[in-house]
Amino acid sequence: KAGVTQTPRYLIKTRGQQVTLSCSPISGHRSVSWYQQTPGQGLQFLFEYFSETQRNKGNFPGRFSGRQFSNSRSEMNVSTLELGDSALYLCASSLARGGGTGANVLTFGAGSRLTVL
Amino acid sequence: GQQVMQIPQYQHVQEGEDFTTYCNSSTTLSNIQWYKQRPGGHPVFLIQLVKSGEVKKQKRLTFQFGEAKKNSSLHITATQTTDVGTYFCADNTGGFKTIFGAGTRLFVKA
């Protein structure tokens, strides 16, 4: 079956612009999580969605937002881009939370690499 | 808050040597997961440990969960160049989020 698909894979923006990243989870996976990965900060949790509801969020400013659609696809948006937002943004899907020992295993997409100039 | 500490940050080994990375938490974990990220790639799930004192093996990889469920380790026997990458432990005890350790980057010299 198809894996987690993230688009675009690479993008370059300038400071002050906004960006939208897309994630299509594995078919049947209803939970989508987003992470920011930078060399200095590792994998930082952004937010998690399940059935179109944000169930948890990390410590990021309000410029970072997301949403999930009824088909479980998810988007994240970063507004007013800053240089420090340059990172690899990873999306991961899982079956569901609390649905058995394997239900919370994350399957990651290849990521969207954002460069802010 | 929810946090897992992972050491070492980097490890350089000669091919054939063993490698171990450690993960520690100040709170009791419901389970611990391990992921591997190859250079230029994305994290890939390796294993999940749930029971106190659990030990699981995958070929040359041995995973342990501490008796108090506050620490875990990943040990690789006789490393190979294919083992290079960053190994992350991860905790999803906190509810609806999985928190990753900082990772241990493994370098293997042939």
The global form of chain A is globular
**Overall pLDDT score of chain A:** 93
Question: Quaternary state, please?
Answer: heterodimer
Please tally the β strands of chain B and state the result. Answer: 11
Helix amount of chain A, in percent? under 10%
Poorly predicted tracts of residues of chain B: none
What structural class is derived from the secondary structure elements of chain A? mainly beta
Roughly what percent helix of chain B? under 10%
Broad structural category of chain B? mainly beta
Spatial separation of the terminal alpha carbons of chain A: 37 Å
Shape of chain B: globular
Our estimate of the beta-strand percent of chain A is over 45%
What is the number of strand segments of chain A? 11
The largest sheet of chain B is:
6 strands, mixed
Helix count of chain A equals 0
Rg on CA atoms of chain A, Å: 14 Å
The end-to-end span of chain B amounts to: 41 Å
How many strands, what sense, and barrel or not for the largest sheet of chain A?
A: 7 strands, mixed
- Element-by-element helix/strand order of chain B: EEEEEEEEEEE
Written account of the structure:
The complex is a heterodimer of chains A (117) and B (110). Chain A is an all-beta fold. Chain A is built from no helices and 11 strands. Chain A has strands spanning 5-7, 10-13, 19-24, 31-38, 42-50, 53-57, 64-68, 74-78, 87-94, 107-108, 112-116. Chain A is globular, with a radius of gyration of 14 Å. Chain B is built from no helices and 11 strands. In chain B, strand 9 (85-91) and strand 10 form a beta hairpin. In chain B, strands 2, 4, 5, 9, 10 and 11 form a 6-stranded mixed sheet that branches. Chain B has a 5-stranded antiparallel sheet with strand order 1-3-8-7-6, with no helix packed on it. Classes of the chains: A mainly beta (117), B mainly beta (110). At the A-B interface, strand 5 and strand 10 of A face strand 5 and strand 10 of B.
